[in-house]
Amino acid sequence: MRRADRLFQIVQILRNKRLVTAKALAERLEVSERTIYRDIQDLSLSGVPVEGEAGVGYRLRYTLDIPPIMFTAEEIEALVVGARMVKTWGGSELGQSAQSVLDKVTAVIPNELKQHIEQSLLFSMRFSKHEDIDISLDICRKAATNKRLLQLTYRRADGECSQRRIRPLGLYFWGNVWTLVGWCELRSDFRHFRIDRMQGITLEKTTFTDEYGQTLADFIRKMRETGEGCR
Predict the structure, then answer these.
(1) Which of 152-161, 207-216, 218-227 has the lowest mean pLDDT?
(2) Sheet with 198-207, side-by-side order of all strands
(3) CATH level 2 (architecture), domain 131-226
C-alpha cells in the first residue's frame, strides 16, 4: 500500500470509530506501530483534526469531510462477490439492498472500473429457491435487530418438534445453512436454531432488554471459554 493510500485509510478508520489504538491501526494496515505514530504525526501537522496519545488511542475531534472514495479493482471485486453472496443467501430484503448497493457503486465509479463489476468471475450459487427460508431469515434478522421475542415451532435433527420462545441475539452463516443464536426461555440457556428447521415462526410485539449473562457477548465469551457449541 502506498503511503498516501495508508494515510487516507487511517482517516477513514478514524471517521468510523470513537477511539482506535495504534496497535489496532497497525494490525489493520499491516505495518508497525512506529509507522502509525509517524503517520498520525504527519496527519496532525497537515491539519487533520486527530487527537489522542500513544497507548490510549486516537480519534477525530470533529467530522471530517473528504472527497468521495475511489475504489481499487480489488475493492470493486470484493463488493461484487459480497453483494452476490448476500443476494443469494441473505434473504429477500437484504438481497434487494445488495443489488441497490451495486447499482449505486456502478453509477459513480469511473468507466474503466465498471468492467470489473461486469467481468467478475466470482459467483455465489444456490440451485434451489426456498422462499419460506428467506422469509424466516428476514423475520429473524428484524427480531434480533429490534430485540423482539420470537415464538418458534422447531424440528430437531431427530425429527421431534418443540415450541420455543427465544430472545434472538444474532445470525451466523455456515456456507449453506443459517443458524439463529438466542436465549431460550424453555432451557434457560443459549441455543442455536437452523433456519431451515423452523416449521413456524411468530414475531411478538414484546421487546426484551439485554441482561447480564444472556447477551451475544456472553454467548461468544462462553464459546471461547468452553470451546463447545450450543445445543
Answers:
(1) 218-227
(2) 189-194, 178-184, 161-173, 148-155, 198-207
(3) Roll (2.30)
In this predicted model, what pLDDT tens digit does every residue of 21-76 receive, in sequence order?
A: 999 999 999 999 999 999 999 988 888 888 887 778 898 876 655 455 567 778 88
Q: How far apart are CA 100 and CA 114, in angstroms?
A: 15
Q: Where are the domains of the chain?
A: 3-60, 73-118, 131-226
pTM: 0.64
CA distance 57 to 37: 11
**Integer Cα distance of 173 and 196 in angstroms:** 12
Which class is 3-60 in CATH?
mainly alpha
Assess whether the region 3-60 and the region 131-226 belong to the same CATH fold: no
Do residues 209 and 218 touch, judged by C-beta distance below 8 A?
no
Cell output for 192: 442455536
